[in-house]
Amino acid sequence: EIRARLEAMILKRRGEVHEARISAKSLHKVFITLCESAGISSSNYPFNSKSLGRRSLERFMHKVASQNLVESTASRYGKDAIKRLATGTGYSKHIYSMAPYDLVGLDAHKLHCFGTVQVNGPAGSKRVAIERLWIVPVLEGDCAAILGYSVGIRTECNAAVIENALISAMSKWSARKPSIPGMEYLPGAGLPSGVFPELAGRGWATLMVDNAAPHYAKAVAERARRRIGCFLNFGPVGHWEHRGALERLMATLEAYGFSRLPSSTGSSPADPKRDDPVRKAIDLGIDWEHLLDLIDITLANYNVTPHAALGNRSPLSVLRDKYHEAASQFLPRSLPPPSAAQPELGIAIETRFVRGNKAAGRRPYIEVDRVRYTSPVLANAMSMIGKQIRLHIRESDLSTIDVYLVTGESLGTLRAQGVWGRCKHSRELRKQFNALDDAGELLNLPGSDPVQKMLAYYAGAALKQTEKNRLKVSRAGTKLAHTAHSTGKSLEEVKAMEPARAIDMVSAPEKLPAPLIQRPRWKAINS
Questions:
Q1: Per its record, what are the GO molecular function terms (predicted)?
Q2: Exposed, middle or buried: residue 183 (CB in 10 Å: 0-12, 13-18, 19+)?
Q3: CA distance 57 to 25
Q4: Residue 354 near residue 367, CB atoms below 8 Å
Q5: Whole-number Å distance between alpha carbons of 480 and 475
Q6: CA–CA separation, 103 vs 135, rounded Å?
Q7: What predicted TM-score, i.e. pTM, was given to this entire model?
Q8: pLDDT per position as a tens digit, 110-135
Q9: What are the phi and psi torsion angles at 333 (to 5°)?
Q10: What sign does the dihedral 249-160-234-349 (CA atoms) show?
């Protein structure tokens, strides 16, 4: 009975309230109490020994812990230690890499540093802190090379950022032009698709992801899997240690560059590296463009840095040897040509009915997110009115749309009518503009540039959010940087527009008179 009681206390088995992590000293006191309650006399063990059985009890604790490894680890060291016990068991993995591009993994991480965006306001330019950037690296499992990456300037990572990372891994890489002197690429640095052009557009066999919500989105779980032709492995729920290579990669990248910035947030609030990061980012002018340069340079340099696990060789050198050696098992996987049923990544397939009215002289067109699209071919095809067609919508640029008949024949490219067709913009940006327009935050005047109007609106909202506290991280400033990044627009000439004001400050030279009847506000917009 005493043995069972002691084992229950060591392993925290059910039946009583347990100490957080019982020590040998505390357990010995319980042991003596149990012996006294059981009626053991002072002439018998353990009372007849000098230490009252203390050393024997310590050996008993170690024996019980070793014989019940999982249970004792859970009781004394917590859930994270239990998860790590699933690795290093000595058994072979079910999924492993035999050659490059057999196994590829990705994961989203938030950078541990702040950046800023420069906003031109009535009192001059002002630095506004933005939320931390998301980075999604794509890591090859055999040579530990980074194939591609994407950056998300947003509050939460979504499926579009994940899909852009996959597109980057298969697209040809080209070096950026750093905006800060001294930021340079190492000799031979780069991503595999840029160093070895023949590897651009290649697929892989297995894609390892975790159980985050964006990985279950249709863009990843269906479109990416079908286009690349790979097996999608989500891994066990809550077990990040099965993707330890990605976690180790981000720790290495943080040590290489991101955690060395003055605006670093450190690994925890108690980290000594964390020294008023928002103030440092604003005062030192750490721009979001500087962070993008640092990300690209750090990832490219990582691929030419020797690794101990590769025999002190760099990932690119190992990949070069395995690609060129005669006995290599590496066979680059070429993707099939895109088709009407299976387009490139980043393209969503939808169907629409062609609209128009021959009697009223209205030529054929389609409508997507409140904007009309047409082309010379479709505009002259009156017989298409009322018929269904298939759209290939590139969600990163909604200025044009490729269309096909339901039988697969191409109808060419349709362009958005008006100003939407003259500026690059994403579908997300179009929906944000429509929501702001519905809420009465913007006045959609004919001929005005919607992208410039959005930039001006977010610039004004960012200034308003930091009026009382300039060290406040601005969500509107984050959207401002995201809009500029996705559209390629420069923020140097953007003038801040006062939020919640239905006046077009971009195209209207003078203030317009207020309407007699105010426009209703249909929904609320969070800046």
A1: nucleic acid binding
A2: middle
A3: 9
A4: no
A5: 9
A6: 20
A7: 0.81
A8: 988 999 999 988 878 899 999 999 99
A9: -95, 115
A10: negative
